[in-house]
Amino acid sequence: xxxxxxxxxxxxxxxxxxxxxxxxxxxxxxxxxxxxxxxxxxxxxxxxxxxxxxxxxxxxxxxxxxxxxxxxxxxxxxxxxxxxxxxxxxxxxxxxxxxxxxxxxxxxxxxxxxxxxxxxxxxxxxxxxxxxxxxxxxxxxxxxxxxxxxxxxxxxxxxxxxxxxxxxxxxxxxxxxxxxxxxxxxxxxxxxxxxxxxxxxxxxxxxxxxxxxxxxxxxxxxxxxxxxxxxxxxxxxxxxxxxxxxxxxxxxxxxxxxxxxxxxxxxxxxxxxxxxxxxxxxxxxxxxxxxxxxxxxxxxxxxxxxxxxxxxxxxxxxxxxxxxxxxxxxxxxxxxxxxxxxxxxxxxxxxxxxxxxxxxxxxxxxxxxxxxxxxxxxxxxxxxxxxxxxxxxxxxxxxxxxxxxxxxxxxxxx
Length: 414
Fold this sequence. Notes:
The protein is an alpha+beta fold. It has three domains: 4-117, no CATH class; 147-350, no CATH class; 355-413, no CATH class. Helix content is 69%, strand content 9%. The chain has 15 helices and seven strands. Helix 6 packs antiparallel against helix 11 (225-267), helix 10 packs antiparallel against helix 11 (225-267) and helix 12 (272-309) packs antiparallel against helix 13 (316-339).
């Protein structure tokens, strides 16, 4: 049916399958950006599967677009409501369009090969996962361009052999991706070259994460304010460099997963869906490890900025320097997390103004004075207490203010 649009959701994205003009109208009406699925291969990559002809004929006249799962596209899924396939775990549905208008009615129809055929769904699910990985590749490339970090230059500047091996991995994976685009498949020869790189990438990423943790621990909120300002500024650029290396590792792992799915489709098409799910789980595990390390960085630098704010009364310039360095580092980390789909729990911190710091001391003075007043009231009658309370409040206030200043100076000198 020309006006029939099939929707498939795998949690990371939404595939929109149907006649080209109908798909375009649907996406335009919903205001969603999309990227093309490798539709030309959908009907040919099933190999010897018994249903290849059926699925191929269904898809040959259709267009496939992939939409990243965002807040807007998630609302679309909720709007139309999709039914889950017990065989693949995908959510599917068919939207009927009449007169160019999309009707929000979901139904399965016997003629929809994708909805009726598990092999076709497994193939499409693999292509959707590849589209999601390609989207991630593009976003990380944009991230590296924005921060202007040349990963190759960073790697060459390192003397550690673990990092030096990554330069060769870059060449191998990029070459394999180029061959894939030209040939349309991943041969056994191509995969044999790529397969040997996975351990190097994993080792490099693990090393980079340990370096990131070590840098975070250097930002010690118990140091002197002058030392803290120097350390915060020093680790700022180093943290950004390690983030760039981790981003490149993650990008290479995504590229290898794209190649791996093509190889499994060629060699063991019956295992395609299980392999796709395994790759998704492994990717999520890597993302969680990165999330733990980056959150550790954010917590340490936030604690340092909070501590620096308590020193703004005596050291306003140094305190501002610590907070500024912490915020720049946090901005880079949060941007990095966003590119990998990690939500941050830390907000940027503002430098406390000198007048606010004085107000804090004043508040502590008043609190201390009030406690002295309460103690004095227990010693005499009301009239005497009023006199003593005023005297004690003033004298305690002066003593508390002086004590606060001396305590600040004592800590700085120690």
